Amino acid sequence: MQLQISYDPAEDRLLLSLALGERSVGFWLTRRLTGLLWQVLWARAGSSVDAAATDTAKQWLLRLNEDRARQRQALTQEPRLQSTSPPLLVTTLQYGPATTGGHVLSLIDAVGHGEQLNLDDDSLYGLIRLLDETLATSDWRLDLWRPTAVASEEAHPARLLH
After folding, report:
1. Which of 37, 61, 123, 134 could share a disulfide with 119, CB 3.0–4.6 Å?
2. Considering the entire predicted model, what is its pTM?
């Protein structure tokens, strides 16, 4: 799976493009949904950290995991992925642990169409990084917090509606 994110000023949305084998699909992410996605991604990242660790240790472990993923993955936005159909406007996020380990993230539109992504930790941190770098090119001025303490997934429902 290949991920790309770009900001489209005419749409005032992020375009998340995915290469899934032989096909490519696109998803529009609004500003509000992107803020929710950011929280979801960090909640999933926090689920991989030992719950018994102190807040300081959790912060350190998250940064260590993020740095490790950065070293393992080379991110590139080229060549541009071309979707064979119009992008879906994401209105619902579903997420949780994958049965085989890792993370599940579903991006769903208003009529129930979408994709389920299975992400390992490196892919999860790669998506966080792509969002962070792309949002810097937008004029959204989102306050993208990095957790000072790992939020419990229990504090977030497994399904978020836009």
Report:
1. 123
2. 0.80
Residue 1 to residue 9: CA distance in whole angstroms: 26
Closest CA to 97 of 120, 64, 131: 120
Domain count, the chain: 1
Ordered mean pLDDT values, 10 residues apiece, the chain (162 residues): 88 90 89 93 80 76 74 63 85 93 94 93 87 89 67 50 56
Strands 103-108 and 92-97: antiparallel
- How far is residue 70 from each of residues 50, 87, 132, 138, 140, measured CA to CA in Å? 21, 28, 13, 22, 25
Q: What domain range includes position 82?
A: 2-161
